[in-house]
Write a structure and sequence with these properties.
With 189 residues, this protein is an alpha/beta fold. It has helices spanning 16-30, 43-51, 77-85, 101-105, 110-119, 123-137; strands spanning 6-8, 34-38, 58-63, 89-92, 147-151, 159-164, 175-183.
Length: 189
């Protein structure tokens, strides 16, 4: 089997449309009907809704947890309501790969090791895996079916993967089956 990976010279929001189009094409080819996108304020979720509009997909937007409200990274109630009005399910919960109680006590917790390993690919890879775990744990994914997870660096989307989802406590069952898009370099700017 041969596949196609879309590589970007630089990470970031400018890659959103191309990433979503690559994800849509592969969803059609494989018959995937569940798509998880990281979306802090709704930009990526709205863009995904437009690109996947005529496909029968379960679109789930995973926002950053409320612990980051001081940084201005959390979704407002109005932004959430706007996405839900479009038929997008929105999930906000504790991050599967960090920023939890273990981070308060140690720098070598297993979730931190997994997180740092995924960062070697790019920020979007870490976030794509994480939002898929979060959606699975929330009961929003059909665990018998593949999914596409989409995320990025800071804003927008620059990474897309096909996964066999798993729950966080069964992390070793998660499979990254295909990389559809990612930046070649993690350096920004």
């Amino acid at each position: 089997m041969e596949g196609r990976i879309l590589y970007f010279e630089k990470p970031g929001k400018a890659n959103t449309e191309a990433t979503l189009r690559a994800a849509r094409q592969r969803a059609e080819e494989l018959g995937i009907q569940q798509v998880v996108v990281a979306s802090s304020h709704g930009y990526t979720a709205r863009a995904a809704k437009a690109i996947f509009a005529d496909l029968n997909v379960n679109l789930i937007a995973v926002s950053i947890c409320a612990a980051f409200d001081d940084e201005g990274w959390t979704m407002t109630p109005e932004e959430r309501a706007g996405l839900e009005a479009l038929g997008i399910r929105v999930l906000t919960c504790l991050h599967s790969l960090g920023d939890d109680v273990s981070d308060a006590f140690t720098r070598s917790a297993p979730n931190r090791i997994v997180r740092e390993t995924l960062y070697r690919f790019c920020q979007g890879m870490k976030v794509a895996v994480e939002v898929a775990l979060m959606a699975a744990d929330a009961g929003l994914l059909d665990m018998t079916q593949e999914a596409i997870a989409i995320a990025g660096t800071d804003e927008g989307a620059d990474t897309a993967i096909v996964i066999k989802p798993a729950y966080a406590h069964k992390f070793k069952q998660l499979e990254i089956r295909e990389i559809l898009a990612k930046p070649r370099s993690t350096a920004q700017g």
